[in-house]
Amino acid sequence: MARREDITPSQEQVLLEILQRDFPLHPKPFLCLATILKIDEIEILNLLQRWQSEGKLRQISAIFDPKAFQHRSSLFAFKVGEEILERAKDIVNAHPGVSHNYLRDHPYNLWFTLVVPPNKDLMEEVDLLFRESGASDYLYLPVVRVFKISTVFHEKGENTSFDDNPSGQEAELQEISEMDKALVRALQEPLPLVREPFKDIAKKLGLSEEEIFSWLKEKKAKGALRRFGALFKHQKLGFVQNIMVGWSVSEDRIEEVAQYLARKTFITHCYQRKTYSHWPYNLYTMCHFKERGKEAIEALAKEIKLTDYLALETLKEFKKTRLKLFYQ
């Protein structure tokens, strides 16, 4: 096991950045990383295995755009009574299409994302969860527009944003083959932390590693692959407070406000979503803080001259995994 001093803090920061943003698609990716950092490959693997055992590194894998593969997805919020919360949480978590599920401080307290494959109906699936959970009401909050979705987390210093779709094009709907499905299923799973992690994947699929890399590059070019990279547990990087803010913004200010919010380093995601007469919040920001999050949001509201907003703190993380496609 690599000792903590084998890799310097500055090298760890560079490694964190590359893992999240630009993981090498190469037969020996960890050797590539070791070459960049000028350290031994085994030290990289030992460090990543330690991070994984500590719960800091969740996984390294492909992140696909669901829409490109004919999936539908949305954010939902259930209103669940305290007396049935544990049961409702378990029912929602058990659905293979649920990747994120949080308890937040609001009567609409159970917030989760749900994705369904082409042969499933999104609203039928959520209605089933609604009935089985015993929730009294729910919000359906599909994305209208994405303003920010990709952020690199740092243990020290500020987070950095990057564009994982620099062309700005909508992902092309794919003609989906059985091999496409097999590749998606395999590559969305955690990459083994071994010297040649793609070798066994290629063997199981009856492909060469180069065919896998070529497929990934093609999907990236078409917008179907957002990126191949690492998912870290934010709390283990020092981000102890997670707050989702729903802002009520007039239509004529949406673009201006969203672009301003997206530049903030503590904001990792920014979306425009569907509204209702009783729920006027149309712009959503995910905010991660190491301290004093509510104060930062109050200051931000003054900066953008908005008074109608909800700052919903995450009280518990019930589920957080990479979104999975073709799970049925």
Q: How many independent structural domains?
A: 2
Low-pLDDT sequence parts: 1-5, 161-168
Query: What is the overall number of helices?
Result: 10
Query: What's the level 1 CATH class of the largest domain?
Result: Alpha Beta
- Binned, the helix content reads 25-40%
Provide a descriptive summary of the structure in words.
By secondary structure, the protein is an alpha+beta fold. The protein has helices at residues 9-21, 29-37, 41-53, 85-94, 122-133, 178-187, 197-205, 209-221, 254-262, 293-303; strands at 57-64, 72-79, 98-104, 108-116, 137-141, 143-148, 151-152, 160-161, 225-232, 241-247, 267-273, 283-289, 309-320. It has two domains: 1-54, Arc Repressor Mutant, subunit A; 68-160 and 235-320, 2-Layer Sandwich (Alpha-Beta Plaits), CATH 3.30.70. The protein is built from ten helices and 13 strands. The strands form three sheets. It has a nine-stranded antiparallel beta sheet with strand order 5-2-4-3-13-10-12-11-6. A hairpin with a 7-residue loop joins strand 7 (151-152) and strand 8 (160-161). The two termini are 39 Å apart. Mean pLDDT is 91; it is low at 1-5 and 161-168.
